[in-house]
Amino acid sequence: MADPDTSFQGNPPGPGEGDGLTRREFLGKAAAAAAGLSALAAAMSPLRHLSDDALPSVEEFLQKHYKEMTPEDKERALNRIREQVRQRYGVEANVTDPPPLDGVEFVYGLNISRCIGCRKCVHACVAENNQSRAPEIQYIRVLEMEKGSIDLETANHHYDPPQVPRPDKWYMPVQCHQCANPPCVKVCPVEATWQEPDGITVIDYDWCIGCRYCEAACPYFARRFNFTTPQIPKEELNPNMAYLSNRPRPKGVMEKCTFCLHRTRVGRLPACLEVCPTGSRKFGNVLDPNSEVHYILKHKRVFVLKADVGTLPRFFYYFDERGSRYHEPITPETKGREVREAGA
Amino acid sequence: MKAQFNFWVPMALLAWAGVLWLDPAPFVSPVPPRVAAPAWATDPTPVRQPKLRPEYRVAGYTYQCMDCHRIIPSPAETFRKLTQHPEIQLNHGINTRCFNCHHPRNRNAFVDDFGAEIPWNQPQLLCAKCHGPVYRDWQAGSHGRINGYWDPARGPQTKLRCIQCHDPHHPPFQPLPPAPGPHTLRMGAPSPAQHAGPRDPLRIFDRTRESSSH
Fold first, then answer.
1. Which ipTM was obtained for this model?
2. Is residue B21 assigned to a domain?
3. From B70's CA, which of A38, A300, B93, B107 has a CA 20 to 30 Å away?
4. Pairing between strand A315-319 and A106-111?
5. Predicted confidence (pLDDT) per residue in B88-113, tens digit
């Protein structure tokens, strides 16, 4: 079969033919270029939905690491967060950056003899710390296990009986253990997470690159990742915020329990403890010999989860012994001490 | 043949661009719809609100206990429902006698080990008669609810007393309905294979698999 291009010798030369480009080649290449450009435009079409809010501002982009910020830099960052919260949620937030307290090391105690697994701590934490509601992000996971075993492999966090506790089960809430030897801090390639002097491991959400190494490193599954932009209803936003704890997080960063540092660093108790109906949760300064947690560590039977991994948690599980410590009797001096102290 | 090939490649690309633009298979998010937590799940109110006063309300009137018990005697020990206090069902272990706790002569007070009176607003002194170790833990703060500030120097603490969590006539902490479970991306719906049926931690082998293999 003859080539059709060579059969018409009398035609005048087409545009570009002098450069060695036939009309047919030109049309074909132009169509290919148009198709390529259209495909590129189609691939880029999600950018149509991008708002100014989704892009970091220049100021945010040039912001330094939290530890390198001067007080003026911090004030600028807090103002920027205030403005962002006002724009996104219409809420006047009280954004602060409370420093760690001198001579304070926070420790958490949880009485597993008294925990009934009602999960109120889980939801109080979500409400306090401005976690995403859809998808849900929860820092506390309550495990239900068979009595007589600590079998985390088969522990169930989906239990939903009409009432808790079930008689043959026990419950173990797990959250960030604020380890003294934290593996999550060691693996962070950009030092976006570190341990504060009061023992709380924090994250600079503006420095985190979302690699999720820390999530993989944590033996307690205590870190959470924002796979999408967190959705929080305006009326449920907690306006009491801190830079290192519960300010709204962007998409693509890690977050975790900070022992509610915006509350605890001003002396208040964490939200999970305040809501616990059984009083199983205990919190305080372990360096204070009169604190509850000091008493628990000194007198109660205490264990840490996965002690063998060497993370040295600051989260202690304890239980009530029965029939022991009769060598420490209640004497007339100790009985009614609280009444005399209240009267004095 | 070469020219036809050149023609169909851009056409196919254009068609694909059109498909991408029209977006016939939109992205389906794996994010589950929100399950709102009920209001009680974040409510820190204690489970009981006892009066801590020797008062009894009946038919809209409030009486002091001794208004009636100055005259009316009480049974020393009872296993039946009381006529005047039908809401009280004494279910406190071997502690089956009213006067183990209530003062036999002054019903506006509790009784201690020596027959003296314990004021109604200090019930922990009464409970300490039998529950010494728990009382000691409560004094030290390792048992019971403390709310407010962990640092008493920075703000007030409220320490609940025994009967603000425990019903003195039926002391075990009462069961509660659990708040909704997790619907997070990583802890989503349970897989039936993982959590099917009760599991005996002392049994290593799966009995169902054993029986099916025979």
1. 0.80
2. no
3. B93
4. parallel
5. 888 888 888 889 999 999 999 999 99
